[in-house]
Design a protein that fits this description.
Two copies of one chain form a homodimer. With 205 residues, chain A is mostly helical. Chain A folds into two domains: 60 residues, Homeodomain-like (Arc Repressor Mutant, subunit A, Orthogonal Bundle); 139 residues, Tetracycline Repressor, domain 2 (Orthogonal Bundle), CATH 1.10.357.10. In chain A, helix 2 packs across helix 5. The N terminus of chain A is likely disordered. The interface between A and B is medium-sized, with 24 and 24 residues.
């Protein structure tokens, strides 16, 4: 999966592509173990057994490697959420499944090994492209579920759709944004349940 | 006001009390200008013109001074919120006023001068007693407003009161906890409006 998210230069062939993947995989392992912020490209080069100059042939900076790792993890979160939502019997059920899946997948992919947290934190703080794309995905998914619920007569239609979707995004944000999730891991399961109930009461026709 | 929140030792008289206030006031100025984390008691002593040993006669540590400052600021937030809520014509109105006042007062007291933010962040992260008391205040105020709204027939009564109050706390937390508010300052006004609307829709009978 890494390969689809790296951005290969058009002048490079399949071998370069493999090297990029190899660097990303090794960097994922390394950052997971030692953290992102404190690691330098030199540390990474030494660990992989490449020269620093060779790594710079493929990535402009440590951040360029970090972005690929972050994008890969976020892609996994989105896949898990899509799969959870697809099984929902109603818009309400899809909403509950979505919220739970965001927390479960986000926790598993960024926090179970605490060391990857600092990539997530840096990515959120500096609004990396992968995080911006993830936020658009969240917004669109919420708007879609609300729209479907309105069309099915499950949800009220008086409030402007934009306002409803935006407010729900705000409610979910502390559990979806990787920078904020770190402060909300404790009790996140109960929180999801209570907040899902509150949101669904607010959506009642 | 500082005087009520310091904890004077019973063996000390009014003069000591004044000195404590003087240290707290000077430290507030100093931390506002140079930040809390990076300042040492030596820096502070030099700035006030006291010896370090003299400051230690009144406070066990830098944190002990920080706690008084934090408690004072949080007391001001609570006063502002109480005043705002007192003017509310209905439970819904009181809820809206409360939410707005938390953000306005929290922003003004901790963030308008960004340098005091790090006291707030440290206090939240390490769950200082002043922050714990503040959190209890928030929980109790929310529960009171919900209860009053239920009694007046403004709010639904089917959901257990504890669950409703807890969920509303969770919705408001990113704007009330000083550690989290820093990430949510941008757009906080709009967020309060949309979230208040959502919460009030969820409370409709």
């Amino acid at each position: 999966m890494n390969t689809t998210l790296t951005s290969p230069s058009p002048t490079r062939g399949p071998l370069d592509h493999d090297v990029r993947t190899q660097i990303v995989d090794a960097a994922t392992d390394y950052f997971t173990r030692y953290g992102y912020e404190k690691t330098t490209v030199s540390d990474l080069a030494k660990a992989i057994g490449f020269s620093k100059a060779y790594i710079y042939k493929f990535f402009d900076s440590k951040q360029a490697i970090g972005e690929v790792i972050c994008a890969n993890r976020l892609a996994e979160v989105m896949q898990a959420v899509d799969a959870a939502v697809a099984g929902g019997a109603s818009a309400s059920d899809r909403f509950r499944r979505m919220f739970r899946a965001f927390i479960d997948a986000g926790t598993a992919l960024f926090f179970e090994d605490r060391k990857l947290y600092d990539i997530a934190a840096t990515a959120s703080r500096d609004a990396w492209p992968s995080v911006q794309a993830y936020e658009r995905y969240v917004e669109e998914l919420i708007a879609r579920i609300v729209r479907e619920g309105r069309e099915a007569g499950e949800f009220e239609r008086k409030t402007p759709l934009d306002e409803t979707a935006n407010a729900i995004c705000l409610v979910m944000k502390p559990y979806i944004n990787p920078l904020l999730l770190q402060y909300n891991l404790e009790g996140a399961q109960d929180a999801t349940l209570h907040l899902s109930n509150l949101v669904l009461r607010s959506l009642a026709p």
